[in-house]
Design goal:
heterodimer; A: 103 residues; mainly alpha; Helix Hairpins; 75% helix; B: 701 residues; two-stranded antiparallel sheet; two-stranded antiparallel ribbon; 4 strands; 69% helix; disordered N terminus
């Protein structure tokens, strides 16, 4: 097993844990945590492919990951803001209770 | 025949010429403001009109003094301000139409006359129209009319002149039909508008031809204008039909327009009917300004009229005249006698004056045709003063006699209305050409003198002398009926207010005084217009034949006055009694009373043809064009019905079905939209798993 495959397996595991969390939890904050896990799994993949790819001397993968983390931070801020405003509005963070946005 | 007038061009334009456009603009603006005034604002309306007219008079006087001063220093003024108006394509390729205004002796003289007489008439109108409920509207129209007329005077472009000319036509329509509640007034307004329109069509043709031939409509443009030698030489070389050169043809077309406005035979019929308008309108339009516009136009395009007068044509020397000028002369002389004859047998005080105006306009045209600009224009200026005096005097008489217009129902007014009588007598003697004292004598004498020396024929001279006899006769008849004898009316007459008689006095003064500037001994006016030096020289009377001519004309005037006095003045006829002439020659009298049947002739020819043509057009409209339109409409209706059938049964069916299917599909898809975020996420995850499975499956092979 190459080191790359090991990283990819770990990333796939983290992604699956995150997806399971996001799909199964009722609490919006826990869903957000699951999404963060999935994002970090993707970041791990980016770093791994860069490190074991054809041009490890270029900083492309690193920069990509840093951008991704920055975007994730912004997404977390927006997500938490949404959760807070939903809580203010509906006095709950239970996602099953907030099902009014449909056509 | 005078020589072609040569002017020293002023290349730099004086300040007064720069602002010359204000003279017509200010009354026009006053008219615009006056149109916004409400009916009860009578004082404001009158003040606005009179104020604007005073301003124009002031500017005109400044311009006049400027021109006279320059002339006295030996440099005749012809200052033009031109500007480009629009670009058009001509046979020379791209051309442009220029507009502009001109200040020269001709324009300066007319400016002062129009604004001065106009101002007096405005003031007189305040009294005359005092009881009219549409007082503000009247002054609005008057200002617009005066502005347009002043515009005609200063135009340096035939096109700008034509524009103002048409505004004059419009306002004359509005003013003649001012009392539009009277059917006769409305009909007279229409008649005036349509009759002058006939002349204007020819005028417009002449304008277009001139523009096509010379590429410019400016009169004077430092050598490049259409009235200057270069353009005229070019036009002279072109031949139109019937042996006319292009200049002759264009000049005749323009003269047709002038004949319409100036009431020359055969387009004179509108002028007597136009007496239905208020009397100040008659004085303004039909004595001083609008009818003079035609004469002024001929004077303005005189270089065109006279072009080629000194050239040999087809091996024959044309001896100082042209076809156009000959036509002008004959039409003028004929109109002068024709209208004077009719005036003899009219009973309406204003109608007599109207026919007299037509006759005098004939004199002016004949004077232009035979004697040149100065001769015709001098009669125009003197006539403007004494004829507006007569019209306003007639208005004063009518005002005093409670709107009676029939001279047979007046009489003896000389003691009741002494001031009106005095001024009216001055105007009447000036019109008759009473020797030596009155302006009319000198201006008419100038025309007769020119006629005597005319090289083509002597007939116009005898016609004009006969016209002078008739003029003295019919004016004596009118004055005898109105002011002498005993009162034949119903209510008692009274003198008019000061606001009406003071302008009469001023005009009467000028009816006498103007003669001083045009006598043979001191022909100041002629010299001014022709740009010659002038000095007082009693030997002016010593020209061969002049004294004899003056004696002849004086004898003719005295004969006319004597005949009139013998028949009408020496006794007091009854109102119902037949006229003195009618008793001796009833048939001739009947013809003259019925205006020589010109209107009736037009009624059975032109108007009958027009009515017939209107009926044909009506029939065509109803049967042919109407039928065609109805057929097309029916076809379209049929086509629409077919379309409707197809739409409902075919297009709509398939469209409705597809809409229904879309609705059902949407309903099905809407079921997965639960609103639960995690359901969506779950579907997304399943889709990703399915996608990955497909990718792995496909890459395996």
């Amino acid at each position: 097993m190459t080191p790359l495959a090991g990283y990819l397996l770990v990333a796939a595991l983290v992604f699956s844990i995150g997806l399971a969390g996001a799909l199964t939890r009722r609490n919006a904050i826990l869903v957000l945590i699951g999404i963060e896990l999935m994002l970090n799994a993707a970041n791990l993949n980016l770093i791994a492919f860069w490190r074991y790819g054809p041009h490890p001397e270029l900083l492309t993968g690193m920069i990509f990951a840093i951008f991704s983390i920055a975007v994730a931070a912004a997404e977390a801020a927006v997500g938490l803001g949404l959760v807070i405003s939903i809580h203010r509005h509906a006095h709950t963070t239970d996602l099953d209770a907030t099902n009014r946005m449909k056509g | 025949m005078q020589e072609t007038i040569s002017f020293t061009p002023f290349l730099s334009v004086s300040p007064i010429a720069e602002i010359l456009w204000l003279i017509p603009a200010v009354p026009m603006i006053a008219a615009g403001v006056g149109a916004l005034l409400k009916q009860p604002k009578r004082k404001a309306a009158a003040a606005l009109a009179i104020g604007s007219m005073s301003f124009s008079l002031l500017l005109s006087l400044v311009a006049f003094v400027h021109v006279v001063a320059a002339w006295a220093h030996g440099a005749a003024v012809r200052e033009t301000v031109n500007f480009s108006w629009i670009q058009v394509g001509t046979q020379f390729g791209g051309g442009q139409v220029d507009l502009g205004w001109v200040l020269d002796p001709l324009a300066a003289v007319m400016l002062v006359m129009v604004s001065f007489v106009g101002l007096l008439i405005f003031i007189y109108s305040v009294g005359y129209m005092a009881h009219d409920e549409n007082f503000t509207r009247f002054f609005c129209f008057l200002s617009l009319f005066a502005g347009a007329m002043l515009g005609v005077v200063i135009s340096n472009s035939l096109l700008l002149l034509f524009m103002c000319w048409e505004i004059v036509g419009l306002t004359s329509y509005l003013l003649i039909g001012f009392w539009y509640q009277k059917p006769a007034a409305a009909a007279a307004a229409k008649k005036a508008f349509l009759t002058t329109r006939i002349g204007d069509v020819f005028f417009l043709l002449g304008i277009v031809w001139l523009f096509a031939g010379t590429g410019t409509l400016l009169f004077y443009n430092h050598g490049a204008g259409s009235m200057e030698a270069q353009a005229l030489t070019g036009l002279l070389a072109q031949h139109a039909a019937l042996g006319l050169t292009a200049t002759g043809a264009i000049a005749l077309l323009i003269f047709a327009g002038a004949a319409g406005k100036s009431g020359q035979f055969p387009l004179h019929v509108w002028l007597p009917d136009a007496m239905e308008g208020p009397t100040p309108v008659s004085a303004l339009i039909h004595a001083a300004t609008m009818v003079a516009a035609g004469v002024y136009l001929v004077a303005r395009v005189y270089p065109l009229m006279a072009a080629g007068a000194h050239l040999t044509h087809g091996g024959m020397l044309l001896s100082g005249t042209t076809t156009a000028l000959t036509v002008v002369t004959w039409v003028g002389a004929f109109t002068a006698v024709f209208a004077a004859l009719i005036a003899v047998a009219q009973n309406d005080i204003k109608r007599i004056l109207a026919y007299s105006t037509v006759s005098q306009l004939g004199y002016m045209m004949a004077g232009l045709g035979m004697g040149g600009v100065a001769v015709g224009m001098f009669h125009l200026i003197t006539h403007a003063f004494f004829k507006s005096l007569l019209f306003m005097g007639a208005g004063s008489v009518m005002h005093g006699c409670h709107d009676e217009q029939d001279v047979r129902k007046m009489g003896g007014l000389k003691s009741v209305m002494p001031f009106t009588f005095l001024t009216y007598a001055v105007g009447m003697l000036a019109l008759c050409g009473f020797p030596l004292l009155f302006s009319g004598f000198w201006s008419k004498d100038g025309i007769l003198e020119a006629a005597q020396h005319w090289s083509v024929a002597k007939t116009p001279f005898y016609m004009l002398v006969f016209g002078a006899l008739l003029t003295a006769f019919y004016m004596t008849r009118q004055v005898s009926y109105v002011f002498f004898g005993r009162w034949r009316g119903h209510k008692t007459a009274h003198e008019s207010p000061a606001v009406m008689v003071v302008p009469l006095g001023i005009l009467a003064f000028f009816a006498i005084a103007l003669g001083l500037i045009g006598t043979p001994a001191w022909p100041w006016f002629h010299a001014f217009l022709d740009d010659r030096a002038v000095s007082f020289d009693i030997h002016g009377f010593m020209e061969p034949g002049l004294v004899r001519l003056m004696a002849t004309s004086a004898a003719v005037v005295f004969l006319g006055l004597g005949l009139g006095w013998m028949l009408y003045g020496s006794r007091s006829p009854q109102a119902e009694e037949p006229d003195a002439l009618e008793k001796s020659a009833p048939m001739l009298w009947g013809w003259l009373r019925d205006r020589l049947y010109v209107d009736e002739l037009y009624g059975v020819t032109v108007i009958a043809f027009y009515a017939w043509w209107a009926r044909v057009a009506d029939w065509l409209d109803r049967r042919v064009w109407g039928g065609a339109v109805a057929g097309v409409a029916w076809g379209f209706g049929l086509w629409a019905k077919l379309n409707r059938f197809l739409d409902m049964n075919w297009v709509d069916g398939s469209f409705d079905k597809s809409c229904e299917e879309l609705g059902v599909g949407g309903g099905l898809l809407a079921r997965i939209e639960t609103g639960r975020v995690q359901t969506y996420l779950r579907i997304l995850a399943l889709a990703v798993v399915a996608l990955v499975a497909i990718l792995i499956w496909s890459s395996r092979a």
